[in-house]
Amino acid sequence: MSARSEEKKKKLVLQALLFGAVTTALYAAVFMHADLVQQLFSRGGYYAAFPIATVFVFSFFHGTFASNLWSVLGIEAVTKQAVKRPTLSAPRPAQRPRPRLRMNA
Fold first, then answer.
1. What end-to-end distance do the CA atoms of the chain give, in Å?
2. CB 23 within 8 A of CB 65
3. Left if phi > 0, otherwise alpha if psi is -120 to 50, otherwise beta: which for 79?
4. Which stretches are transmembrane (predicted)?
5. pLDDT per residue as tens digits for the range 17-41
6. Which is nearest to 65 in space by CA: 6, 22, 7?
7. HSE, side-chain direction, 13 A CA sphere, residue 84
């Protein structure tokens, strides 16, 4: 492994640990103060934005943690450049005409 990849891996490990700790702290805070969270979220009016904002915050931190964790483990998403589709060498056959209904008069 090159020094550059070692440095990148260390950075990913540190980021994964940091975002994992933040995610754990967020979940702990919500569960420890569940009564307060329930009171604030159920007030209505402008307070209706609190659950939405909370979901975005949790989603950002948890998603970043999970992404860094997968990268540390060496699991990466497939990019479009890596996917090669087979080319169609033969043209498609022409469609047959629809049969017509004839009625004897």
1. 86
2. yes
3. beta
4. 12-34, 46-75
5. 999 999 999 999 999 999 999 999 9
6. 22
7. 2
